[in-house]
Specification:
This protein folds into four domains: 1-157; 159-256 and 393-421, Tetratricopeptide repeat domain (Serine Threonine Protein Phosphatase 5, Tetratricopeptide repeat); 456-537; 544-675, 2-Layer Sandwich (Heat Shock Protein 90). It is built from 28 helices and seven strands. The chain has helices at residues 7-22, 30-33, 37-50, 52-67, 72-90, 95-111, 115-132, 137-157, 160-176, 180-197, 200-216, 220-233, 240-253, 257-274, 277-293, 297-314, 319-332, 335-348, 360-371, 375-392, 395-426, 431-508, 516-536, 539-544, 546-557, 578-599, 628-633, 637-646; strands at 564-570, 575-576, 603-611, 614-621, 650-656, 660-668, 674-675. The longest helix is centred in the C-terminal third of the chain and has 78 residues, at 431-508.
Length: 678
Amino acid sequence: MIVTIQQMLRKSIAVLFFVLLAANVRGQNHKVTSLSIQEIHALLETMVNFSPDSTQILLDLAAEKIEKLEDKELAAKYWAENNLRRADYLTYLRNEEAKYFLENAYNYYSTHPDDAKMAEVFILKAQRIKMENELDIETIKESMRYFDEALFYAKKSESPELLAFIYYEKAFNLQHLERWQESIENSFLSLQQAEKSNDSLTLAAGNYLMGRTYNYFGFPNNAEFYLEKAIGYAKGMYQIASLINFYGDILILNNKTELAITQYKLAIEGFIKQNNHSNIIDIYAKIGQAQIKSANLEEAEKCYEAMMNISESAEINGPRATVFAAQIYQQWGERAKTIESLHYFDKHYHSNMNKAQNIDMYKDVAEIYSGLNLPQESSRFYKKWGMLKDSLHTNSSKSQLSELEKMYLKERDKNLEITKANLELKSSRTQQAWLAASLILLVMIGGIFIYFIRMRGLKENQALKFQMKAKQMEQFIETQESERQRLARELHDGIGQSLAALKMQLQFDDNSQANDVTVKRVDDLCREVRSLSHQMMPLVLKENGLKAAIEQLVEQAFANAHLEVDVVTHGVDGRLADNVEVHLYRVTQELFTNILKHANATKVGVQLMQRNKNILLIVEDNGNGFSKEQKQEGMGFSNIRSRIESLEGSLKVQSSASEGTYVRISVPISAQSVRKIA
């Protein structure tokens, strides 16, 4: 459990204790026994997270010192703290025994108020309930009541470490209750308090929670960032192997297989020290599955042998190990063993795999069944995988997460600015300096006023020129689009209809000279004319609006490009004015052309949404970016900027060679630019 102490004191005492303990001088060395009871209890708050085995020794050492105290009131105070530390130590080891010490601590602090200690008591009560019962809805709700009590006392104590930990636990509970927005809010609050604490253990927990939250809502890249920070803060923690293991899972999702395998091997080393066979087996299965996907069967077989050696000696199996075994048997061509493993998975694990990190196992099973030419079973698991994947997170939850992150960053920057301003004020200014500043301010205001008067006329002239230029550009573009529409109608109604009639005549003419070759040529001409007509003025844009047109454009533009394309639309089901829809559609065409011609990307993201009174269009890729000079020289950005300026919108472009290109377009929606679907 995370509690409030000075970090430097914690680290210095910890280093001293570890050195002396390693030398087996606990009972003889004067430096250890000379530690005060308060110092030992402070050390215990950290030791339980770094070395549980050493915690019992420290608890007994503190108890010996308390028994020798003659001041009964002081002894009662220290016994209460010792009971609290013992409860913290025993909650995850011997839960029923922890209850006895926790009640003793609660009885003391109920009559001797200490907000921080009462917060710890209620945190442990909540943790005990979760450990004592199955993690069902009622258990979680009961634990939430204790966490709320803990939050009440933690706020009074103004302890950022306690607040960070309580928000951390509440975020997990709220996810189980499927109260997603509250869970996200508590995640950000936890990280906010962790940053205030400047405590490495608290920061590790806060960043881990953010990484877990981002992964849950389908943002593995963001999750990787926070988990990497968490590992940096968690050096030496007892549970760091679990953290590294989870980090490896995220790296797999981000297609960083080699780095993921390196992290998995580090996690195995940690779990070996903990004698945690089940996690070691699970990690060997993960590495093996990654090697199979990389077509490295020899390494996958080594992982299988290592996994089976531990599994047979420890008599432990698991869902991932079972699926991995089936994959190995399939690679060896042992159909019967493959099916046997899949049936074992279906019987023992099928109904218990609803966690985010386990859902993809259903997809693995479906693919194995597909390879065995058992389509019915394959379809069953594909449906299960798809259903869980769809229900895992929603676009609205993702949007809430993004908005809350912006709010959190804005609030953090605001607090930093306030702190900076307070420090500047505390540097104090004499009354003479205030007078000088006031005089300078008056002079500046006068100068600014004069400058404003002189520049006003110039700005009005510039604004008038800009309006004229924008009007001319709008007229030019409107004329261009009208001409395109006229040509499209001519092609479709004139040439297209004539060719279609000729095709029918040739098809049904009994004349033997109307052969198949001629029919095919005419058919190709029809398709070409239709394609040209749609390019000049897409039918779907005219009839169904911008959202449908862009979705169709994505399908057509990237159909043969082997790219991963993610399209998100929100709040744009209604129709916009013709000029807005046409301009945004043409801009999207130009951006897609740039990606296909220049970017060499593997991932493309497209977002079209309405936010407040603006339409936002965001197109980004992970390909080769470009310099500012390249953007000015070509790539269609001059045409794009002209279109956006004619709509009184804004264009933002970010690009670099290593990070791809990000284009954000915002166009205001006026009363005249919105129309209903006919």
